[in-house]
Amino acid sequence: MAATKSQGKAFSLFMVGLTTACAGIAYLSSGSGIAALIVGLIVVAVAFGLFLSIKPLEGKVPENIQPVALKLAGLVAALGGWMIVLYGLHLTATVSGRLTTTLIGFAVSLFGILYLLPMAANKNAIWKA
Amino acid sequence: MRIVRTVSYICALGFALAAGAGIVARADAPPSASAAELKAAASTAPATTTLANGDPGGALTGTVSDVPVSDAKTGLTLGDVANQVGQNKIGVNFTWTLICGFLVMFMQAGFAMVEAGLCRVKNANHTYMMNFFVYGCGLFAYWIMGFAIQMGGAAGNGNLGGLQPLIGEQTLNLFGTNWGIFGHSGMFLSGHTYDVGVMVIFLFQMVFMDTALTIVTGACAERWKFLTFAVSSVLMGAITYPLFANWAWGGGWLAQLGTNMGLGKGYCDFAGSGVVHAVGGVTALACALIVGPRIGKFNRDGSANAIIGHDISAVLIGCFILAFGWFGFNPGSTLGASGAGCLRIGSVAVNTMLAGCTGTFGALLYMWALKGKPDASMSVNGMLAGLVAITAPSGFVNPTASAIIGLIAGVLVCVSVAFVENTLKVDDPVGAISVHGAGGLWGVLSVGLFADGTSNYGGSWNGVTGSVTGLFYGDASQLVAQLVGMVTLVGFVFSFSYALNWVLDAFIGQRVSAESELEGLDLPEMGQLGYPEFVFRPESEILTPVAAVA
C-alpha cells in the first residue's frame, strides 16, 4: 500500500488531537481546558482507530512474530536493573556500596537489552526462513 | 555652677554651628570622582557633526553617548552604566547561545547527508525526507509539550537573565527527600513564559532534542514506514527525550543526586552525550529490534552481508558539517560567553576538536591494521563517536583527557558495530546505535573518570559547591552518579522507547511491505525517486558477504 491519503488524514487527525489535548493541559485550571483535553484525547483515540483500520492494507510485511513472553521478560529485566539501582541508592550510604548495587543493576539491564530482547527479535527472524 | 552652665551652652552652640557648617559643606561638595568622570566623558564624546564625517578607524563609534540615560534631566548616572553592563552581559550570552543553536540546527543537514549517503540509491529520497521532516515533527511536539516537561522547572540560570518564569517543577517525595520528576511551565511558550530569556533557551534546547530524534532514523532506514516514523518522532520529541533531559538538565532527580545523596555534583552531562546521543542511541536500538533487519542483510546461517551505501562523498561532507555544528553543540552549552566561568568556551572547543581527531585515528587505524583498509564509513563513524563521547565531558576535562576519550571512542565504535551486527543480529545501516548509543554511554562514564576539577561555572554545579571531579582526580562518588545516569538510559529510556514503539507497531505497523522494500521506498512512500536518472542494479550485484569485504 505504502503512503496513502488515508495515512495522511489519520496523521493530521493525530496531530490535531495531540495539540488540542496539550492546549487542554496548558489551561487545565479553566473549564475550557478540561474540555479541550477530553476532546483532544478522543480525537487521538479516533486517529489510532484509523491507524488500526488501514494497517491491513499495507500488504505482506517482512516481519517475524516475536514471542511476547520473551519480549516482556527482556523489558522486565531492563526496568528491573534500573529499579535495583534506585533501591541500592537508599540501601547504603557508602560510595563502594552504591557502586556495587549500581553495577549489579547495570548488568541486569544489559542482560535484558542485549540478550533477551535480541533473542526475542531473532527467534523467528525473516532471514532464517 | 552658673559658670558651668554658661560654658555648656557655649559648647552646645559651638557643636551646633560646627554641625551646621558640616551639612552646608557636604551640600556644596563637588560631585564624587566617578560621577565627575561620567560627566567629563559625556562632554568629550564626539559631536554629531564629527560623526557625520564618518569613522573609518572605528575610534569614534561606541562611546559614552551610546549608553541610554534613564532621566535626561539628571544625565548619565552610575546606575545607567551598571544597567548597560548587565544588558551587555546578557546580550553577549543571548547572542552566543543563539548562534551556537543555529550551528546545531545546521547539523540536521549533516545527519541527512551521512544517513542518506550510507543508504542505497533507491531509498535516498525517503532517507532525506525522514531527516527533513523529523525537524518539523520534533519542533512542533517540543513547542506544545516537550519543552515544558524538560525545562518547565529550570529557573535560576544567571547567564540568561534568570529564566524566572520557568518555575514549575513537579516533585515526588521519596524517603523524605524531594525529587524533580518533570516540569510544567512553558507549554506553547504562552503566558508568563512569553519571555526573552525563555525564547533563547527554547531555541537552544529544541535543536538538541531534534538531534536525538534524527539518530533513530538512521538505525531504521530503508524499511521504516514513513507514517510510523512521523508518529514515533512526535512522541519522542514530546515525552521520551524531554523526560530524561529534565532529570539531567531541568533540575530533575539525576541532577539532584549530589544535593540529595552526596554523589559528586550529581549526574553531569555538559552538552549531552547521555541526554542527546545515548537517548537517541538506545531508542534507535529499541526501534531497530522491533522493525527487524532489511531483506538480504543476513543469510540463513546468520552471517551478515555488507549493504554498501550509494554516496560516500555525501557521507564525508556530511560528517564535516556535523563536526562544524559540534562547535555549537559543546561550547554553546555554557549558555553564555560572559560570566560564571563561561570563558572556558575555548577549552571546550579545543577538547571537541581533539576528540573528533583522535576518534578518527582510533577507527581508521583499527580498520586499517585489522581489516586491511582505512575504511571511509568507519572513519566517519570514528570521528562522530569521538565527538559524541566528548560531548558530556567537554566542559570538565583537559585536552589530554579529551584526546584519550576520543581515541577510545573511535576503537569502541568499530567493536560495537561488529557486535551489534554479528552478535545481536540487529541491522543498523548507518551505525547509529554504536556511534550514539555506545559512544554516548562512554562519554557519560568518562566524566566520572577524567573530570579534573578545574572548571568553575559560578562556583558550583547542580547546586553543589565546587568543581566536577572524577575518579582519577579523587572523587569516586562522581563515577557512581554517572553510572546511575547510564543505567537510567539503558534501563528506563530504552524500556520506555521500546514499549512506546511496540504499541505503535500494534496500531500502525513499523515496517513497509516487502514489495515496497525491494522496490525501494522512494516511489511507494514518497512518490518520487531521489535520483530519477540512475539505473538500478539487481540486489544480487550489490549484496556482498561481510567476510569478503573484510
Could you describe the 3D structure shown?
The complex is a heterodimer of chains A (129) and B (550). Chain A is mostly helical. Helix content of chain A is 76%, strand content 0%. Chain A is built from 4 helices and no strands. In chain A, α1 runs antiparallel to α2 and α3 packs antiparallel against α4 (95-122). The longest helix of chain A has 28 residues, at 95-122. The radius of gyration of chain A is 22 Å and the shape is flat. The mean pLDDT of chain A is 92. Chain B has a single domain (87-540), classed as Orthogonal Bundle (Ammonium transporter fold). Chain B has 19 helices and 6 strands. Chain B has helices spanning 2-27, 33-44, 48-51, 78-117, 124-151, 196-219, 226-249, 257-261, 273-291, 312-329, 345-371, 376-391, 399-423, 432-450, 476-507, 514-519, 522-526, 539-542, 546-549; strands at 169-174, 177-183, 305-306, 460-461, 464-465, 544-545. Chain B is globular. The interface between A and B is large, with 59 and 69 residues.
Mean pLDDT of chain A: 92
Shape of chain B: globular
Termini gap of chain A: 24 Å
CATH topology of chain B: Ammonium transporter fold
